[in-house]
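Please decode residue identities from the backbone states below.
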């Protein structure tokens, strides 16, 4: 009888399957864990375009999480697009209740999804403050990209030195680890910094130009959660996840259809 660690994704649904819970499930399977999901919203999107978002009622989101915790030994969790202040507030309250009932929570990876690769806003305006006050205190690690760092830190980041400064400041402010993802700097390497307390760990991979995928942040955070669910220490989980997402980008898929080119991460690498 096979038995795999169980990892939960609380996130939105992406119909193009490059991001959201669909990408998370592919990533979980590729990294040796059994994925379960609580869907927060349904997004009509393809790489480069978001045309509609429909929220799932908060009571349905919370019931999904309750049922899963009652049926499975959840070994790790991640949050992706929570979308509304109501869902953020409800999920955080439920997680705090579950922590009291179960004597603690499994490690939580927070991908603070705020802006799509296309530039479209993916959370309501008042949700950012709730991320910081309600969700970050529950997290084992928060994984912002540079656009999200700007929203959280209040300053743009355009260099590795500023990434270090922002990571140290955010880790100190929120009392948890921050993985500052530097892919948007677009140098010859994609450099990420894991900042925790006074420690900084650096992760590098070759930057892959000319690829227009989406869902990299979802995939990266899901792979970290998979590693934590397998019992890896945080630094090792991030290192393994960096390798996985780099392979998924480097082995990207591409289709030509309807006069346009569409790229996607190769989650099966």
């Amino acid at each position: 009888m096979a038995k795999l660690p169980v990892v939960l994704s609380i996130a939105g649904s992406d119909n193009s399957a490059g991001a959201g819970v669909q990408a998370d499930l592919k990533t979980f399977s590729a990294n040796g864990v059994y994925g379960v999901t609580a869907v927060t919203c349904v997004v009509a999107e393809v790489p480069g375009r978001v045309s509609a978002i429909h929220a799932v009622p908060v009571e349905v989101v919370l019931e999904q999480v309750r049922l899963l915790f009652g049926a499975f030994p959840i070994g790790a969790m991640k949050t992706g697009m929570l979308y509304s202040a109501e869902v953020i507030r409800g999920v955080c309250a439920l997680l705090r209740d579950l922590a009291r009932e179960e004597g603690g929570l499994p490690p939580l990876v927070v991908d603070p999804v705020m802006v799509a690769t296309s530039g479209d806003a993916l959370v309501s305006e008042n949700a950012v403050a709730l991320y910081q006050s309600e969700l970050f205190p529950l997290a084992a690690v928060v994984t912002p990209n540079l656009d999200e760092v700007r929203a959280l830190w209040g300053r743009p980041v355009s260099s590795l030195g500023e990434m270090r400064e922002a990571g140290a400041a955010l880790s100190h402010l929120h009392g948890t680890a921050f993985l500052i993802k530097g892919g948007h700097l677009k140098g010859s390497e994609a450099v990420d910094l894991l900042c925790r307390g006074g420690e900084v760990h650096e992760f590098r991979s070759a930057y892959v130009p000319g690829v227009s995928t989406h869902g990299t942040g979802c995939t990266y955070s899901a792979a970290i959660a998979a590693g934590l669910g397998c019992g890896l220490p945080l630094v090792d989980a991030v290192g393994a996840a960096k390798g996985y997402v780099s392979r998924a980008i480097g082995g990207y898929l591409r289709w030509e259809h309807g006069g346009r080119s569409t790229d996607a991460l190769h989650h099966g690498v």
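Observation: The domain at 6-264 is CATH 3.40.1190.20 (UDP-N-acetylmuramoyl-L-alanine:D-glutamate ligase).
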